């Protein structure tokens, strides 16, 4: 029964995240050919996941079910590595090499910067 509750919590947390990712993709697709939506959701999901994991490990202040629901469910439903790769492929096929380089640098550099900030936050 405990495992069913965990899986249900993950499932329910993933629903609004996937809905949000979908609607952000629709909104940004009308504004630009640059994949802003994927960049935004991946960096936001990374920041949230780092915050959750860091605080959970440091203080154990969160319930384990909540961490699973938000970490695996919400952040997993929100972020998309496959979407990132698809965006890279589309930029490559359009020969948009500058955008491809900028997108890759922003995604990887932004994620790494968030990791460094989370690490520094944990040391205070």
TrEMBL record:
Binding site for Na(+): 76, 79
Regulation of catalytic or functional activity: Na(+) is not transported, but it plays an essential structural role and its presence is essential for fluoride channel function.
Keywords: Cell membrane, Ion channel, Ion transport, Membrane, Metal-binding, Sodium, Transmembrane, Transmembrane helix, Transport
InterPro entries, alphabetized: FluC (IPR003691)
Top-level lineage group: Bacteria
Keyword Transport: yes
Membrane topology classification: Multi-pass membrane protein
Reactions mediated catalytically: fluoride(in) = fluoride(out)
Location within or outside the cell: Cell membrane
Membrane-crossing residue ranges in chain numbering: 35-53, 65-85, 97-118
Protein function: Fluoride-specific ion channel. Important for reducing fluoride concentration in the cell, thus reducing its toxicity.
Family of this protein: Belongs to the fluoride channel Fluc/FEX (TC 1.A.43) family.
NCBIfam families linked: PRK14221.1
Name of protein: Fluoride-specific ion channel FluC
């Amino acid at each position: 029964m405990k495992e069913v509750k965990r899986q249900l919590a993950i499932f329910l947390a993933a629903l609004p995240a996937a809905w949000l990712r979908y609607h952000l993709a629709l909104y940004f697709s009308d504004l630009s050919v640059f994949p802003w939506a994927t960049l935004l959701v991946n960096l936001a999901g990374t920041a949230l996941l780092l915050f959750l994991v860091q605080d959970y490990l440091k203080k154990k202040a969160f319930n384990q079910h909540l961490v699973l629901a938000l970490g695996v469910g919400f952040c997993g439903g929100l972020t998309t590595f496959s979407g990132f790769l698809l965006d890279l492929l589309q930029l490559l096929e359009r020969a948009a090499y500058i955008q491809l380089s900028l997108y890759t640098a922003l995604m990887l550099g932004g994620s790494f910067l968030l990791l460094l900030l989370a690490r520094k936050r944990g040391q205070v």
